[in-house]
Fold:
Amino acid sequence: MSETKSEEFYVAGVDVGSTTAKAVILNSKLEVIGKSLQEVTPKVAEDAETSFVKACKDARIDREKIVLVAGTGYGRLKIRFGKLIVTEISCHAKGSQHIFPNTRLTLDIGGQDTKAIRLGPNGEIVDFSMNDKCSAGTGRFLDVCAEALGYTVDDLGSLSQKSTNPIRITSTCTVFAETEVSNQLARGKKTEDIVNGIHDSIAQRSLSLARRVGIESEVTFTGGVSRNIGMVKSLEKALGQKINVSPLSQWFGAIGAAMFAVEEITKGSDPMFKQLEVVSE
Structure:
């Protein structure tokens, strides 16, 4: 086991989700100094490895300098080089409070599911609810609707901001929603109004999840869908309050995993820390 200087160390968090793999490198000041993002392929283990290597390159450090790697996400058991495995619910909560310390509710809209996580003042998870039975209200829902409209999902945020009369999307199934979107286009409805309606529909589903656990005063939005300004605005309208969004929001799961790695290597140290052998769950 290699020795590490107490005044400086590096940890990594790798989040392999249903559609993307994210990795971050944190330094001893708990700053994100490197990150990566890529699509997930059928070769999940390779995707995890590649994302980690890219994050190390972005941080300009050798992977051998990483004291501990923590993994999370749907593909966390495929992160074979990681020594610590943590659930994505715990990691999104941890990442949210690391960037926004007063977070009391985390809304994570990912590729295949949506989570509402209520947090206590010390970061403990008080309650959570998730929609993982159907892709309605998730990133996949947006992908399908964007394709039906002839756009990419990255176009939807700015497009929705041109809307003046959002169209109500009533379908709760992704397949039926695609048909509904096509029908609205055929009726001559404006594309931007349809997109705004799609965002509002997803926001209402997220609101239902949030109500199950309890809406709090400070809400943080995580996951890839948080990059969509239209979704941010629709969520704020549904919740009736401003929400926290960061340029790093898509990496909050990976950041949370890295923070768990920090806790693991500093466990029982005052102020020195040691590298631990942590068995994956």
Remarks:
- The beta strands are 10-16, 20-27, 32-39, 66-72, 84-85, 105-109, 114-119, 125-131, 219-222.
- The chain has two domains: 10-90+251-266, 103-245.
